[in-house]
Amino acid sequence: MYIDTMPIFDGHNDALTRLWLSDDHDPVDAFIHQQLPGHLDLNRCQKVGFAGGFFAIFLPPFDYLKQHHPNKLLDQGVDNFTQQQIEQICLQQLDLAQQLTQRSSNIQICTSVEDIEHCITERKLAIVLHMEGAEALQHDPELLDVFYDAGLRSIGPLWNRPSQFGHGLNAGFPHSPNTGPGLTAEGKALIARCADKKLLVDVSHMNERAFWDTAEILAQPIVATHSNAYRLCPQARNLTDTQLKAIYDSQGLVGVNFDVAFLRSDGQRNTDTPIEVILDHLEYLILYLGEEHVGFGSDFDGALISNELNDIMGMSKLISAMQQRNYSDQLIEKICFKNWLKVLQRIWAAT
Ligand SMILES: [Zn+2]
Protein backbone atom coordinates (compact mmCIF):
# COMPACT_ATOMS: atom_id res chain seq x y z
CA MET A 1 0.00 0.00 0.00
CA TYR A 2 1.12 3.59 0.27
CA ILE A 3 2.97 3.73 3.57
CA ASP A 4 5.98 5.49 2.04
CA THR A 5 4.17 7.92 -0.20
CA MET A 6 3.06 11.46 0.50
CA PRO A 7 -0.65 11.81 1.30
CA ILE A 8 -2.39 13.86 -1.37
CA PHE A 9 -5.58 15.82 -0.72
CA ASP A 10 -7.16 17.39 -3.76
CA GLY A 11 -9.61 20.22 -4.40
CA HIS A 12 -11.84 18.73 -7.09
CA ASN A 13 -12.88 15.58 -8.92
CA ASP A 14 -15.97 14.47 -10.81
CA ALA A 15 -15.86 10.77 -9.88
CA LEU A 16 -19.41 10.79 -8.48
CA THR A 17 -20.77 12.16 -11.74
CA ARG A 18 -18.78 9.54 -13.64
CA LEU A 19 -20.30 6.82 -11.43
CA TRP A 20 -23.75 8.29 -12.06
CA LEU A 21 -23.16 8.31 -15.83
CA SER A 22 -21.66 4.82 -15.87
CA ASP A 23 -23.54 2.03 -17.64
CA ASP A 24 -21.75 -0.56 -15.51
CA HIS A 25 -24.36 -2.68 -13.70
CA ASP A 26 -22.74 -1.85 -10.35
CA PRO A 27 -20.39 1.14 -10.65
CA VAL A 28 -20.00 1.41 -6.87
CA ASP A 29 -18.65 -2.14 -6.72
CA ALA A 30 -16.39 -1.43 -9.68
CA PHE A 31 -15.01 1.69 -7.96
CA ILE A 32 -14.32 -0.22 -4.76
CA HIS A 33 -13.09 -3.56 -6.04
CA GLN A 34 -12.07 -3.29 -9.66
CA GLN A 35 -10.85 -0.72 -12.09
CA LEU A 36 -13.39 1.67 -13.53
CA PRO A 37 -12.55 3.47 -16.76
CA GLY A 38 -11.72 7.02 -15.75
CA HIS A 39 -9.09 8.80 -13.73
CA LEU A 40 -9.53 7.26 -10.28
CA ASP A 41 -10.90 4.38 -8.24
CA LEU A 42 -10.14 3.07 -4.76
CA ASN A 43 -7.28 0.79 -5.76
CA ARG A 44 -5.43 3.43 -7.71
CA CYS A 45 -6.02 6.03 -4.97
CA GLN A 46 -4.52 3.73 -2.37
CA LYS A 47 -1.56 2.77 -4.52
CA VAL A 48 -0.52 6.36 -5.19
CA GLY A 49 -1.28 7.76 -1.73
CA PHE A 50 -4.33 9.76 -2.77
CA ALA A 51 -5.89 10.43 0.62
CA GLY A 52 -8.99 12.09 -0.77
CA GLY A 53 -10.48 15.40 -1.70
CA PHE A 54 -13.58 17.19 -2.89
CA PHE A 55 -16.00 14.94 -4.75
CA ALA A 56 -18.47 17.00 -6.77
CA ILE A 57 -22.20 16.47 -7.09
CA PHE A 58 -22.76 17.91 -10.53
CA LEU A 59 -25.61 18.32 -13.00
CA PRO A 60 -24.21 17.62 -16.48
CA PRO A 61 -25.50 19.85 -19.30
CA PHE A 62 -28.86 18.67 -20.70
CA ASP A 63 -27.62 18.58 -24.30
CA TYR A 64 -24.61 16.50 -23.28
CA LEU A 65 -26.88 13.93 -21.63
CA LYS A 66 -29.28 13.93 -24.55
CA GLN A 67 -26.44 13.25 -26.96
CA HIS A 68 -24.23 10.86 -24.96
CA HIS A 69 -26.36 9.40 -22.15
CA PRO A 70 -30.02 9.62 -23.26
CA ASN A 71 -30.90 6.74 -20.91
CA LYS A 72 -30.20 9.11 -18.00
CA LEU A 73 -33.06 11.42 -19.01
CA LEU A 74 -36.57 10.59 -17.91
CA ASP A 75 -38.16 12.34 -20.86
CA GLN A 76 -36.09 12.71 -24.01
CA GLY A 77 -38.77 14.65 -25.84
CA VAL A 78 -38.19 17.86 -23.92
CA ASP A 79 -35.35 20.33 -24.30
CA ASN A 80 -34.46 20.99 -20.69
CA PHE A 81 -34.57 19.50 -17.21
CA THR A 82 -37.50 19.88 -14.90
CA GLN A 83 -36.56 21.10 -11.44
CA GLN A 84 -37.62 17.72 -10.09
CA GLN A 85 -35.13 15.99 -12.40
CA ILE A 86 -32.33 18.33 -11.36
CA GLU A 87 -32.93 17.56 -7.70
CA GLN A 88 -33.20 13.86 -8.42
CA ILE A 89 -29.89 13.74 -10.34
CA CYS A 90 -28.04 15.50 -7.52
CA LEU A 91 -29.65 13.31 -4.84
CA GLN A 92 -28.70 10.22 -6.85
CA GLN A 93 -25.05 11.32 -6.84
CA LEU A 94 -25.24 11.92 -3.11
CA ASP A 95 -26.65 8.41 -2.77
CA LEU A 96 -23.68 7.03 -4.74
CA ALA A 97 -21.29 8.69 -2.29
CA GLN A 98 -23.21 7.15 0.61
CA GLN A 99 -23.13 3.73 -1.04
CA LEU A 100 -19.35 3.99 -1.43
CA THR A 101 -18.97 4.52 2.31
CA GLN A 102 -21.53 1.87 3.23
CA ARG A 103 -19.97 -0.77 1.03
CA SER A 104 -16.30 -0.09 1.82
CA SER A 105 -14.77 0.42 5.24
CA ASN A 106 -11.92 2.16 3.38
CA ILE A 107 -14.02 5.15 2.27
CA GLN A 108 -15.48 7.85 4.51
CA ILE A 109 -17.47 11.06 4.04
CA CYS A 110 -15.60 13.75 6.00
CA THR A 111 -17.15 16.82 7.59
CA SER A 112 -14.18 18.03 9.64
CA VAL A 113 -10.42 18.27 9.36
CA GLU A 114 -10.18 15.70 12.16
CA ASP A 115 -12.15 13.29 9.95
CA ILE A 116 -9.69 13.84 7.09
CA GLU A 117 -6.68 13.41 9.37
CA HIS A 118 -8.22 10.21 10.68
CA CYS A 119 -8.62 8.97 7.10
CA ILE A 120 -4.99 9.79 6.34
CA THR A 121 -3.83 7.83 9.39
CA GLU A 122 -6.15 4.91 8.67
CA ARG A 123 -5.36 4.93 4.94
CA LYS A 124 -8.99 5.52 4.04
CA LEU A 125 -10.24 7.54 1.09
CA ALA A 126 -11.64 10.84 2.43
CA ILE A 127 -14.64 12.23 0.57
CA VAL A 128 -15.54 15.88 1.08
CA LEU A 129 -18.90 16.43 -0.59
CA HIS A 130 -19.02 19.44 -2.90
CA MET A 131 -21.95 20.75 -4.94
CA GLU A 132 -20.84 22.19 -8.28
CA GLY A 133 -23.54 24.56 -9.52
CA ALA A 134 -26.48 25.05 -7.15
CA GLU A 135 -29.39 24.52 -9.55
CA ALA A 136 -30.71 21.78 -7.23
CA LEU A 137 -31.45 24.50 -4.66
CA GLN A 138 -33.37 26.82 -7.02
CA HIS A 139 -36.91 26.00 -5.95
CA ASP A 140 -36.43 24.51 -2.52
CA PRO A 141 -33.78 26.31 -0.46
CA GLU A 142 -34.44 23.82 2.37
CA LEU A 143 -32.76 21.17 0.26
CA LEU A 144 -29.46 22.75 1.31
CA ASP A 145 -30.14 21.40 4.81
CA VAL A 146 -30.77 17.92 3.43
CA PHE A 147 -27.42 17.93 1.64
CA TYR A 148 -25.70 19.51 4.64
CA ASP A 149 -27.06 16.86 6.98
CA ALA A 150 -25.74 14.22 4.58
CA GLY A 151 -22.27 15.77 4.82
CA LEU A 152 -22.09 18.52 2.19
CA ARG A 153 -19.39 20.99 3.27
CA SER A 154 -18.54 22.86 0.06
CA ILE A 155 -20.52 24.57 -2.68
CA GLY A 156 -19.81 26.26 -5.99
CA PRO A 157 -22.98 28.34 -6.39
CA LEU A 158 -22.47 28.81 -10.14
CA TRP A 159 -21.38 26.67 -13.07
CA ASN A 160 -20.93 27.51 -16.77
CA ARG A 161 -24.58 28.38 -17.37
CA PRO A 162 -27.00 31.02 -16.15
CA SER A 163 -29.12 30.05 -13.15
CA GLN A 164 -31.34 31.67 -10.57
CA PHE A 165 -28.14 32.48 -8.66
CA GLY A 166 -26.04 34.22 -11.29
CA HIS A 167 -24.74 34.70 -14.75
CA GLY A 168 -22.45 31.64 -14.96
CA LEU A 169 -19.31 31.64 -17.00
CA ASN A 170 -19.07 30.48 -20.56
CA ALA A 171 -16.53 32.14 -22.85
CA GLY A 172 -14.17 31.32 -25.69
CA PHE A 173 -10.38 31.54 -25.54
CA PRO A 174 -8.68 33.84 -24.87
CA HIS A 175 -11.21 35.72 -22.81
CA SER A 176 -11.16 37.97 -19.79
CA PRO A 177 -12.97 36.69 -16.64
CA ASN A 178 -15.15 39.77 -17.02
CA THR A 179 -18.05 38.12 -18.87
CA GLY A 180 -21.06 40.06 -17.62
CA PRO A 181 -23.25 40.43 -14.57
CA GLY A 182 -22.44 38.55 -11.36
CA LEU A 183 -24.69 37.22 -8.64
CA THR A 184 -28.44 37.76 -8.47
CA ALA A 185 -30.11 38.70 -5.18
CA GLU A 186 -30.93 35.00 -4.75
CA GLY A 187 -27.27 34.15 -5.38
CA LYS A 188 -26.13 36.59 -2.73
CA ALA A 189 -28.66 35.20 -0.26
CA LEU A 190 -27.52 31.64 -1.00
CA ILE A 191 -23.88 32.54 -0.37
CA ALA A 192 -24.75 34.26 2.90
CA ARG A 193 -26.65 31.14 3.97
CA CYS A 194 -23.79 28.85 3.02
CA ALA A 195 -21.34 31.06 4.91
CA ASP A 196 -23.60 30.91 7.98
CA LYS A 197 -23.43 27.14 7.81
CA LYS A 198 -19.62 27.36 7.40
CA LEU A 199 -19.62 25.72 4.01
CA LEU A 200 -16.64 26.45 1.81
CA VAL A 201 -17.86 28.73 -1.01
CA ASP A 202 -15.98 27.93 -4.21
CA VAL A 203 -15.32 30.75 -6.69
CA SER A 204 -13.82 28.49 -9.38
CA HIS A 205 -16.66 28.83 -11.88
CA MET A 206 -17.44 32.47 -11.21
CA ASN A 207 -16.89 35.31 -13.62
CA GLU A 208 -15.12 38.37 -12.31
CA ARG A 209 -18.24 40.24 -11.18
CA ALA A 210 -19.56 37.22 -9.27
CA PHE A 211 -16.12 36.74 -7.70
CA TRP A 212 -16.14 40.29 -6.32
CA ASP A 213 -19.80 40.02 -5.26
CA THR A 214 -18.83 36.88 -3.32
CA ALA A 215 -15.71 38.46 -1.82
CA GLU A 216 -17.89 41.25 -0.49
CA ILE A 217 -20.23 38.84 1.29
CA LEU A 218 -17.69 36.36 2.66
CA ALA A 219 -15.81 36.89 5.89
CA GLN A 220 -14.26 33.44 5.44
CA PRO A 221 -11.23 32.65 3.22
CA ILE A 222 -11.90 32.81 -0.54
CA VAL A 223 -11.14 29.51 -2.22
CA ALA A 224 -10.91 28.56 -5.89
CA THR A 225 -10.89 24.77 -5.70
CA HIS A 226 -9.84 24.17 -9.32
CA SER A 227 -8.53 27.22 -11.21
CA ASN A 228 -5.22 28.52 -12.52
CA ALA A 229 -3.30 31.72 -13.20
CA TYR A 230 -4.84 33.94 -15.88
CA ARG A 231 -1.48 35.52 -16.64
CA LEU A 232 -0.13 32.13 -17.81
CA CYS A 233 -3.30 30.95 -19.53
CA PRO A 234 -5.84 33.64 -20.49
CA GLN A 235 -8.92 31.47 -19.98
CA ALA A 236 -11.89 33.14 -18.31
CA ARG A 237 -11.99 30.44 -15.60
CA ASN A 238 -8.50 31.42 -14.44
CA LEU A 239 -7.66 34.06 -11.85
CA THR A 240 -6.22 37.50 -12.51
CA ASP A 241 -3.42 38.87 -10.35
CA THR A 242 -5.92 41.17 -8.62
CA GLN A 243 -8.13 38.21 -7.75
CA LEU A 244 -5.08 36.31 -6.44
CA LYS A 245 -4.27 39.26 -4.24
CA ALA A 246 -7.81 39.17 -2.79
CA ILE A 247 -7.49 35.43 -2.16
CA TYR A 248 -4.21 36.02 -0.35
CA ASP A 249 -5.73 38.82 1.73
CA SER A 250 -8.54 36.48 2.81
CA GLN A 251 -6.08 33.71 3.74
CA GLY A 252 -7.71 31.55 1.08
CA LEU A 253 -6.38 28.96 -1.35
CA VAL A 254 -6.16 28.09 -5.04
CA GLY A 255 -6.17 24.45 -6.13
CA VAL A 256 -4.31 24.02 -9.44
CA ASN A 257 -6.50 22.51 -12.16
CA PHE A 258 -4.84 19.84 -14.34
CA ASP A 259 -7.03 20.43 -17.41
CA VAL A 260 -4.62 21.16 -20.26
CA ALA A 261 -6.91 23.87 -21.65
CA PHE A 262 -6.64 25.77 -18.35
CA LEU A 263 -2.86 25.30 -18.19
CA ARG A 264 -1.49 25.90 -21.68
CA SER A 265 -0.74 29.44 -22.76
CA ASP A 266 -2.46 28.73 -26.10
CA GLY A 267 -5.53 27.25 -24.39
CA GLN A 268 -5.47 24.24 -26.73
CA ARG A 269 -7.23 21.04 -25.76
CA ASN A 270 -4.04 19.16 -26.54
CA THR A 271 -3.06 16.33 -24.21
CA ASP A 272 0.48 16.32 -25.56
CA THR A 273 1.36 18.72 -22.75
CA PRO A 274 4.24 18.22 -20.29
CA ILE A 275 3.35 18.12 -16.60
CA GLU A 276 5.92 20.89 -16.02
CA VAL A 277 3.20 23.35 -17.00
CA ILE A 278 1.38 22.43 -13.77
CA LEU A 279 4.52 23.44 -11.87
CA ASP A 280 4.70 26.71 -13.81
CA HIS A 281 1.21 27.59 -12.55
CA LEU A 282 2.05 26.47 -9.00
CA GLU A 283 5.12 28.69 -8.97
CA TYR A 284 3.26 31.68 -10.38
CA LEU A 285 0.53 31.26 -7.78
CA ILE A 286 3.14 31.01 -5.03
CA LEU A 287 4.54 34.39 -6.15
CA TYR A 288 1.17 35.98 -5.33
CA LEU A 289 -0.15 33.70 -2.60
CA GLY A 290 2.96 32.47 -0.84
CA GLU A 291 3.64 28.82 -0.08
CA GLU A 292 0.70 28.44 2.30
CA HIS A 293 -2.17 29.10 -0.09
CA VAL A 294 -1.76 26.73 -3.03
CA GLY A 295 -2.75 23.11 -3.47
CA PHE A 296 -4.04 20.70 -6.09
CA GLY A 297 -7.47 20.92 -7.70
CA SER A 298 -6.99 18.19 -10.27
CA ASP A 299 -10.48 18.03 -11.82
CA PHE A 300 -9.88 14.31 -12.40
CA ASP A 301 -12.78 12.68 -14.24
CA GLY A 302 -13.91 16.10 -15.44
CA ALA A 303 -10.79 17.35 -17.22
CA LEU A 304 -8.67 16.67 -20.25
CA ILE A 305 -5.45 15.47 -18.64
CA SER A 306 -1.91 15.49 -20.07
CA ASN A 307 -0.78 12.14 -21.51
CA GLU A 308 2.19 12.27 -19.20
CA LEU A 309 -0.02 12.44 -16.11
CA ASN A 310 -2.75 10.21 -17.62
CA ASP A 311 -4.68 9.42 -14.42
CA ILE A 312 -4.33 9.57 -10.67
CA MET A 313 -1.31 7.26 -10.79
CA GLY A 314 0.54 10.15 -12.45
CA MET A 315 0.58 12.03 -9.14
CA SER A 316 3.83 10.27 -8.26
CA LYS A 317 5.39 11.68 -11.45
CA LEU A 318 4.17 15.12 -10.51
CA ILE A 319 5.78 14.86 -7.08
CA SER A 320 9.05 13.68 -8.69
CA ALA A 321 8.91 16.67 -11.02
CA MET A 322 8.55 18.95 -7.97
CA GLN A 323 11.59 17.31 -6.41
CA GLN A 324 13.55 17.77 -9.62
CA ARG A 325 12.80 21.47 -9.48
CA ASN A 326 14.21 21.46 -5.95
CA TYR A 327 10.99 22.12 -4.08
CA SER A 328 11.73 21.45 -0.41
CA ASP A 329 10.04 18.51 1.32
CA GLN A 330 8.13 21.03 3.42
CA LEU A 331 6.79 22.83 0.34
CA ILE A 332 5.76 19.55 -1.29
CA GLU A 333 3.94 18.56 1.86
CA LYS A 334 2.13 21.89 1.99
CA ILE A 335 1.01 21.63 -1.63
CA CYS A 336 0.06 17.96 -1.33
CA PHE A 337 -2.24 18.28 1.67
CA LYS A 338 -1.23 20.57 4.52
CA ASN A 339 -2.44 23.82 2.96
CA TRP A 340 -5.81 22.31 2.15
CA LEU A 341 -6.27 21.08 5.71
CA LYS A 342 -5.35 24.47 7.12
CA VAL A 343 -7.79 26.43 5.00
CA LEU A 344 -10.57 23.93 5.71
CA GLN A 345 -9.90 24.31 9.41
CA ARG A 346 -10.18 28.10 9.04
CA ILE A 347 -13.54 27.79 7.31
CA TRP A 348 -15.20 24.82 8.99
CA ALA A 349 -14.00 25.47 12.54
CA ALA A 350 -14.34 29.27 12.51
CA THR A 351 -15.77 30.66 15.72
ZN1 LIG B 1 -15.51 22.56 -12.42
* Element string (H = helix, E = strand): EHHHEHHEHEHEHEHEHEHHEHH
CATH superfamily: Metal-dependent hydrolases
What compounds are bound to the protein?
Answer: zinc ion
Total individual domains? 1
**Helical/strand content category:** alpha/beta
Arithmetic mean of pLDDT = 95
Low-confidence stretches: none
Evaluate the radius of gyration.
19 Å
What's the level 1 CATH class?
A: Alpha Beta
Total helical elements: 14
- What is the terminal separation in angstroms? 38 Å
The CATH architecture can be given as Alpha-Beta Barrel
The share of residues in extended strands comes to: 5-15%
Shape: globular
What composes the largest sheet? 6 strands, parallel
Helix content: 40-55%
CATH fold call = TIM Barrel
Oligomer category? single chain
- Would you count the extended β strands for me? 9
What tags apply to this protein structure?
TIM Barrel, single chain, binds zinc ion, alpha/beta, 6-stranded parallel beta sheet, 9 strands, 3-stranded parallel beta sheet, 351 residues
